[in-house]
# Entry
Amino acid sequence: MLTQAPRGTRDVLPTESYKWQFLEAKMRKAAAEAGYREIRTPVFEHTELFLRGVGDTTDIVQKEMYTFKDKGDRSITLKPEGTAGAARAFLESNLYADPLPSKMYYLAAPVFRYEAPQAGRLREHHQFGMECFGAKEATADAELIILAYRLLSGLGVSNLSVNINSIGCPECRPKYNNALRQYLSEHLDELCDDCKNRYERNPLRALDCKQKKCQAVVADAPVLLDYLDERCKKHFEELQACLREMHIPYQVNTKIVRGLDYYTRTVFELITRTKEGNLTVCGGGRYDHLVEEIGGPDLPAVGFGMGIERVLMLLENEGVEIPQERLYDCFVTYMGENRVAAFLLTEKLREQGIRADMDHVGRSLKAQFKYAGKTGAPLTAILGDEEVANGQVKLRDMETREEKTVPSEQAAEAVKAMLEQ
# Structure
């Protein structure tokens, strides 16, 4: 147990972290192009934030949160999703007083959910999320959907499609909830225990249930789109118009409601087809009353979350090659007692922006060359007694075996020239 990671977690080793860095750089670039700036929120928050924001009828709150009492007897929860924390920071820092909309993103943010580990999503996984506070128009929804679609397509995720739905607003949804309750009342015995418990408080959750028997029941349930008021209809129509004009392949899926209570109007998922079936890569929607629900002003907002592990898994399955930068430009080798001279040369090369290293474990010169070859360094610098005595460095091209001797003070300049050849 001491040397084994807890179930549902995994290490990102130095041999694979370059893949994360590559993906994160692409995500940062996509966010910057649309004017989103990074926010970093705590790994844990007060439990009440998620009870009020996410909703106490959701699976996340009822079953999946890591909640504990701290030494001050305060109830603390490890972040199960990123939006509530971003909304809390937005409110606490009075960002609503700044010019709106306020666009922010978080990257490689750890998210904790106690659930059965699944493909590309562990109990601790990491998300790229984008949040836009203060924008009420459907163009803001379309902006985020298109950004996510372009990002994933550009990375190489194939068979990608967008599923969208509108779940209305507090004005029109009660009528639908009543119609849905009436329909479900005739099938209560066929529902799972969770859906039975939610029947009165939040019947909409039944549409999102993954139990096959519940999916069979709701297949013929009333469609929420038929109950939208004029404002919600217009909003949804504008969203579709934006996606059509930008040639984004989308379909309306009336069963999408997402798993969080704060959503209003637009909900969406980006889905890819795999050999094992459909897999959701990104999900989000509009949450126009979340800020108000946690104590702030009435302010519209929209956002999404994208699992980084899942994207990396899909890229690997697609055979997408992620470029890996070489570890070293030059490896400094030495003979005999010239270790300190090698150390000084290594540091001088680094001062000039050259990726350099040397042997720190007492290898022989032959073993140093062998190790340098394994690192992939294209050049080696050789310091023997003669070179040190004459204030020189011998540089070797590891591929051609060609060597040249240069004064020590010109070593960095010579290495750069050889790297450019």
The chain has a mean pLDDT of 92.
